[in-house]
Amino acid sequence: MKFQLAPAALVLGGLMAAGAAQAQDATAEGIAKYREMLQDGNPAELFEMKGEELWKQKRGPKNVSLEKCDLGKGPGVIEGVFVELPRFFKDTGRVQDLESRLVTCMETLQGFNGAEIAKTRFGRDEMANVTALATYVATASKGMKFNLPQSHAAERAMYETGKRLFFTRGGTHDFSCASCHGESDKRIRLQDLPNLTKNPGDGIGFAAWPAYRVSNSQMWGMQLRLNDCFRQMRWPEPKFGSDATIALSTYMGVNAKSAESIVPAIKR
Questions:
Q1: Closest by Cα among 128, 96, 108, 267 to 194
Q2: Which of 260, 190, 217, 258 is nearest to 24 (CA)?
Q3: pLDDT in tens, 55-77
Q4: Could you count the other beta carbons within 10 Å of the beta carbon of residue 263?
Q5: Strands 211-213 and 218-220
Q6: Higher pLDDT, 41 or 233
Q7: Domain boundaries, the chain
Q8: pTM (two decimals)
Q9: Which residues contact residue 62 at a Cβ distance below 8 angstroms, ignoring those fewer than 6 apart?
Q10: From residue 168, how far is each of 23, 51, 66, 206, 239 by CA, in Å?
């Protein structure tokens, strides 16, 4: 025996679905307007200013500045470097992102202990300075389009490794990066989840970090963003500058090709 819904029930169901969709659209629009209002007085500018001071200040055991730091375009050049990172560096023999490369410069030029910095908690001591420096350097590429190099074999290997990691499921909840960011039009609570397997659009995914987090009044770089993603997936916490984090950044960065950087961004 077949059952059929009455026409009135079908109409009601359609109206409820349409209402839910409209409510979601209204919520997303409200969040976008809220971020737009905050952007005018984005506290990230304070971190950018601090980063500029740190870049030019003579510090560390060697008492020198970072103005000769080579981030991929030659000593001291910061314009355009952010949108081409991570990339392979011959002097270290590995692919590095902006934050890990800055630590290398702090170690080689200024005499800091890079391993000790890497072990420091985010937001504290020299790690807080790394975030400020990354904000300053990244801001110099605002409006530029991402175009990560893939000419070196190590860069291509990092991309493929990042792709595998992105879809690998694990942890107590059997989550992967793709669980949240592998499809379009997904949301968790009031937060839209960009699809990071393709170009996510200007300033939505990879192209938006470092960003100021309104919810905790902190500036986050990509290393901390990934660290927190691992935590939410119930995975073991990755080490700062690890191959895992660099590989994931390379995968997302290559996928973000042609997206414009809006760093420093502002997030919920």
A1: 267
A2: 190
A3: 999 999 999 999 999 999 999 99
A4: 26
A5: antiparallel
A6: 233
A7: 42-267
A8: 0.85
A9: 109, 110, 111
A10: 34, 35, 38, 19, 18
To the nearest 10 degrees (0 to 180), the angle between helices 44-56 and 125-139 is 100
% of the chain surpassing 90 pLDDT: 65
CA-wise closest residue to 100 among 262, 238, 237, 252:
238
What pLDDT sits at residue 185?
76
For domain 42-267, give the fold.
Answer: Cytochrome Bc1 Complex; Chain D, domain 2 (1.10.760)
CB-based contact 211:265 (threshold 8 Å):
yes
Give the 3-state secondary structure of residue 192: strand
> Both tokens of residue 189?
């609570």
- Which of 131, 167, 140 has its CA nearest to residue 252? 167
Q: Which residues are catalytic?
A: 229
How far CA 114 is from CA of 16, 121, 224, 226, in Å, comes to 57, 13, 17, 20
Place of tokens 């270290």: 92
166 close to 248: Cβ distance less than 8 angstroms: yes
